[in-house]
Please model this.
Amino acid sequence: MITVVGSINMDLVVQAKHFPKQGETTIGELFATVPGGKGANQAVAAARLGSEVRMVGAVGTDAFGNQLLKGLEAESVNVEAVLQKEGASGVANILLSEGDNRIIVVPGANFRMTPEEMNSFKLILSTSRIVMMQLEMPAPVVQRTLEICQALGVPTILNPAPSEGFRTEFLSLADVMTPNETEAEALFGKEWEKALVDYPNRLVVTLGKDGARFYDGKNHIHVKGLPAKAVDTTGAGDAFNGALCVALSEGMLFEEAVYFANAAASLAVEKFGAQGGMPDRKKVLERLKEYS
Ligand code: RIB
Model:
């Protein structure tokens, strides 16, 4: 069983020809309300790849809360440990334009989770093959989860996004960390290539369409990204993380796991919506074969 401790948001997506300038109003082309949140996206990614997945997190008592719970259940993600907290659910305002996205998250119920609640989920954590986290939860919640997992000997993956919630304590608590280039520079305060050497087989820096890099203790390994016809890059990092989690939980070697994750991410960008393009295992294996 994979446990994802993380955010659950409703994504309010607007697509426009160009990003408006400061003070400008522009006419958009599309508006959609789709499920998102880095935690939920990673949980859905792992479930579609065939893993048993459980989500720990919170939604609000608003209409979005019920829709988000139903959406996760429809993806076969166990939501018994998702709390429903008084008030609004998390939302993400996503602007899609010029082949890229700009996102503002208003965390809502996600930020009303407490470290004490994580103590009550000890049994759930202890029965997990691996626990996956991001930073759209309060830092004390992430820290308590990592501490509990370390004490129990349960492996963890921390996707330190967004990096503003990062604490240096996480460096020694998380088993694997998966920042993108920008997050890595913010986390380590130096060129990320140099930081890789300090965390062999523990730090994977994702490079968008260029793939990912890590250091295996002897060599720098660049796992190249696979070609994709990108439609919407929202959630590509989540597809990578969900797939990496699945691969490592199944005992794949680190490099093989990163290949698998890259293939999942390349497929995820080919459809609209953070969760819309999360591929199943058959598609990932076909893509790996296509480019092997
Ligand atoms: O990683 C993409 C996700 O970031 C979106 O689904 C949005 O909810 C934000 O959390």
In short: The chain has a mean pLDDT of 96.
